[in-house]
Design a protein that fits this description.
Elements lengths: L20 H5 L15 E7 L5 E7 L1 H5 L3 E5 L1 H4 L27 E2 L5 E7 L2 H10 L1 E6 L6 H5 L14 E9 L2 H6 L3 E9 L11 E7 L2 E6 L4 H12 L6 E4 L15 H13 L3 E4 L2 H7 L6 E9 L5 E13 L7 H9 L9 E10 L13 H19 L3 H8 L8 E2 L5 E2 L4 H12 L1 H13 L3 E10 L16 E7 L5 E5 L8 H13 L6 E4 L17 H28 L6 E4 L2 E4 L2 E7 H10 L12 E6 L8 E10 L6 E11 L6 H20 L31 E4 L17 H18 L13 H10 L6
Parallel strand pairs: 1-12, 10-11, 14-15, 20-21, 27-28
Antiparallel strand pairs: 1-5, 2-4, 2-6, 3-5, 7-15, 8-13, 9-10, 9-12, 13-14, 16-17, 18-26, 19-20, 19-25, 22-23, 23-24, 26-27
This protein binds pterin cytosine dinucleotide (MCN).
Pterin cytosine dinucleotide (MCN) binds next to helix 15, helix 16 and helix 18.
Length: 781
């Protein structure tokens, strides 16, 4: 199925090629750095080299005097001219220490913005940074979240005694009773290490103030949120700010809100009256773009002899870094909400403590709390199986929710919409040939070779929405306009940055209106074009943005039907709409096309009495619930005992995201997400030393797999529609990341279990695995 499918052939479900790709593949994409504005000045940021220090003085005189330097800004220059940024998605119980755009008297992480230089070009700006003198008085730092809680630990903010930002907990059922009567109790300490998103395009922003309007081109996932944040900080009405997201080279969650240096760049453009551009270097992107994870989870499960899990409890320590970032709370809270995974665990308790440390802030990064949850639940399931001498697949089967239990209210207060978890697992086991691999494992073990089989059964919340369950607005806007010529324009508040939404939303509109896909334009990512929006993150575009479009299509068709009835002199109830034609029921020849209806709608001729001219509709959709995609993954790894190196022999991923709109795009998302999961489980880790220096802040030190290391993926699917989504679709983009990480980890841990090793932390790099083998004297065998 390709573009140009005849009208009437369903496009929903068709593997249509992404219309976005031709330009990108030919190098015709337009990213922030490609936007040509005359007289654009470059901004460079002086960042703290200390994890924790008092600023005694900043001397900018030499820098300011350099030829080509237009301005040097410090906190003093912003005083009284900017307002504090609005808190976004910050829990009400959290302390909110101030976070000035540029540091005032103290820095709290390496990379914190201290001063900004605006110069004729980036080379002059970089030279000028070196000419700024900052007198720092270093303080003891604490970059480890557990150490930050110790008595006597360095304190980051007077507002947060003990470095605690906030606590959150819930408990359901008789947790302690279940532990008291359990046949077996397993405990694990599971670390979800800090990660970097490493989007191909580093953070970038270009701002221009002209004719009373501040126009901002930004590599953002949420243009409307960026506009509102800048409006507050710069004390401008939203109507004076236009944010445009041009092509964006990936975001993975970390480009969802305004950064401090973004606001400084916009401020500079306003005050200098020249366009100002900020493009982070890769090194800056590592230190100064929000990071993911940073969780320590102490989890325990109580199980009956047959492997039924009676209760689970978890204490999570979330490392927030130095400041509360927008949506910082999200990951820790979502981990708790998904504590029981796809399982029927009647009693559960979750206690979250979020702490400040001298490191870059953490915030949502692909999965945002759900990979953490899946990791701890799935590692726990394997631990239960191992403790009881049961097969890990069987333990999962005994605990999985059954189809008749949906909608399922979880102990944490979510309501899962639909699922066929056991069927997915069964299919996975059969297609992978599980029994054969276990047999092979026995042979390998007898020969002293390490072979591991890992599982992951998971569900997750896809779609940030409904608003009542989310930290900040969980709705999305979608408008559909049939133009006077009959061509269609779709406007969406989502803001794609690699997901292919122009293609998918055109498929939906072409199907719904019965027009060729080429006749549908999809506009997004410009606050002057799309009046309201929330953005693209949390796998929400299809599950929340999609219905806003389908509802608008319904409204347009309804209006068009009434116009057609008037034109055909029939009753609206007698008009049948199919393949872009409105016909009188029983008289197929008495018909008008959508194009002629549109022409009449704009000519305002022959319209029913009182009807407004035009043919368009807007919907702001606030979904009734999240969608809950799920999957069953199986991974087989061989580990070299001498080097610790893992080779993925087989990776099978079955995903169920309900109605599949574009299987080719879904496949691409799954390949990407699995590759990221592989990277996380097997190699990625951001490490800070005791002074708060980032030790892994370059592509030499941080693992980004190439095609050479990336395993071959075998993907599969089932279809269990979401009952509350108009076309039954669930989000999918984060699922492979959520499910993939524990699957790899379980495989590695399963392989090592033959030597009695019960747990190794991620990342399972060759060196880390070798260290574990070496510590146990096993590499010498
Ligand atoms: N899709 C579909 N049918 C479904 C579900 C999804 O055809 N039932 C398609 C969608 O139409 C869309 C894609 O799959 O083209 C992903 O849809 P969805 O799951 O709704 O996710 P979003 O579009 O909201 O994308 C956000 C998601 C997130 S949260 C991260 S992180 C991530 C991801 O997208 N970052 C990405 N994938 C990325 N892909 C690229 N190239 N770059 C990123 O930064």
């Amino acid at each position: 199925m390709v573009q140009g499918a005849p009208v009437g052939q369903r496009l929903i479900g068709a593997a249509v090629r992404r219309r976005e790709d031709a330009a990108l593949l030919r190098g015709d994409g337009r990213f922030v750095d490609d936007v040509p504005l005359p007289k654009t000045a470059a901004m460079a940021v002086l960042r703290s080299p200390h994890g924790h220090a008092v600023i005694r003085a900043i001397d900018t005189h030499r820098a300011a005097a350099l030829p080509g330097v237009l301005a040097v800004l410090t906190a003093r220059d912003l005083e009284g001219r900017v307002a504090p940024e609005p808190p976004i998605g910050v829990p009400s119980q959290a302390v909110r220490p101030p976070r000035p755009l540029l540091a005032t008297d103290r820095v709290r992480y390496v990379g914190e913005p201290v001063a900004a230089v605006i110069a004729e070009n980036r080379y002059v700006a970089a030279d000028a940074l070196e000419a700024i003198r900052v007198d720092y008085d270093p303080l003891p730092a604490v970059a480890d979240p557990e150490a930050a809680l110790e008595p006597g630990a360095p304190q980051l903010h007077p507002e947060a005694p003990g470095n605690v930002a906030y606590r959150w907990s819930w408990s359901h059922g008789d947790v302690d009773g279940a532990f008291a009567r359990a046949h077996a109790v397993v405990s694990l300490r599971l670390v979800n290490q800090r990660l970097a998103a490493v989007a191909m395009e580093t953070r970038a922003l270009l701002a221009e103030y002209r004719g009373g309007t501040l126009t901002v081109w930004a590599g953002t996932q949420a243009p409307h949120r960026l506009r509102s944040t800048l409006a507050v900080i710069l004390k401008l009405p939203e109507s004076s700010i236009r944010v445009i997201a041009p092509d964006v080279g990936g975001g993975f969650g970390v480009k969802g809100s305004a950064y401090r240096d973004d606001a400084v760049c916009a401020f500079a453009a306003l005050s200098l009256g020249r366009p100002v551009k900020l493009v982070l270097t890769r090194a800056e992107d590592f230190t100064s773009t929000v990071q993911g994870r940073g969780q320590v989870n102490d989890v325990e499960a109580a199980a009956a002899a047959d492997g039924t899990v009676l209760a689970i409890r978890c204490r999570t320590l979330a490392d927030l870094g130095a400041y509360l970032e927008a949506l910082t709370a999200y990951p820790g809270v979502l981990t708790g909400r998904l504590l029981t995974g796809p399982y029927r665990i009647p009693a559960a308790r979750y206690e979250l403590t979020s702490v400040f440390t001298n490191a870059m802030s953490t915030a949502p990064y692909r999965g945002a709390g759900r990979p953490e949850a899946a990791y701890l639940v799935e590692r726990t399931m394997d631990a239960v199986a191992r403790r009881l001498g049961l097969d890990p697949a069987e333990v999962r089967r005994r605990n999985l929710l059954r189809p008749e239990q949906f909608p399922y209210p979880t102990p944490s207060g979510l309501v899962y919409d639909s699922g066929q978890y056991e069927a997915a697992l069964d299919r996975a086991l059969e297609l992978v040939g599980y029994a054969r691999f276990r047999e092979e494992q026995r042979t390998a073990r007898a020969a002293g070779r390490l072979l591991g089989i890992g599982f992951s059964c998971f569900t997750e919340t896809a779609g940030v929405g409904p608003s009542k369950l989310t930290a900040s607005g969980g709705w999305e806007s979608g408008a559909v306009r049939v133009e006077p010529t009959g061509k269609v324009t779709v406007l969406t508040g989502t803001s794609p940055h690699g997901q292919g939404l122009e293609t998918v939303f055109a498929q939906i509109a072409a199907d719904g209106l019965g027009v060729p896909m080429e006749d549908v334009a999809v506009l997004h990512g410009d606050t002057a074009v799309v009046s309201a929006g929330v953005g693209t993150f949390g796998s929400r575009s299809v599950s929340v943005g999609g219905p806003a479009i389908t509802r608008s299509i319904d409204k347009v068709v309804d209006k068009a039907r009434r116009i057609a009835a008037s034109l055909l002199e029939a009753a609206a109830e007698d008009i049948v709409f199919s393949d872009g034609r409105f016909a009188v029921r029983g008289s197929p020849d008495r018909a008008v096309t959508l194009q002629s209806v549109a022409a009449a709608a704009y000519a305002a001729k022959g319209l029913p009495d009182g009807m407004e001219p035009g043919l368009e509709a807007t919907t702001v959709w606030d979904p009734p619930n999240f969608t809950f995609p799920f999957g069953a993954y199986i991974c087989v790894v061989d580990i070299d005992v001498d080097t610790g190196e893992s080779k993925t022999r087989s990776f099978y991923a079955l995903d169920d995201c309900g109605t599949r709109i574009n299987p080719m795009i879904i496949e691409g998302q799954i390949h990407g997400g699995l590759t990221e999961a592989f990277a996380v489980a097997m190699g990625q880790q951001l490490t800070y030393d005791e002074q708060g220096n980032l030790l892994s802040g370059s592509l030499m030190d941080y693992f980004v797999p190439t095609a050479v290391e990336t395993p071959k993926w075998e993907t599969d699917y089932t279809v269990t529609p979401s009952p509350h989504h108009p076309i039954g679709a669930k989000g999918v983009a984060e699922s492979p990341h959520v499910g993939g990480i524990p699957c790899f980890s379980n495989a590695v841990n399963d392989a090592l279990s033959q030597f009695g090793i019960t747990h190794v932390d991620m990342p399972h790099s060759a060196f880390n695995v070798w260290k574990t083998l070496h510590a146990n004297g096993l590499d010498k065998r």
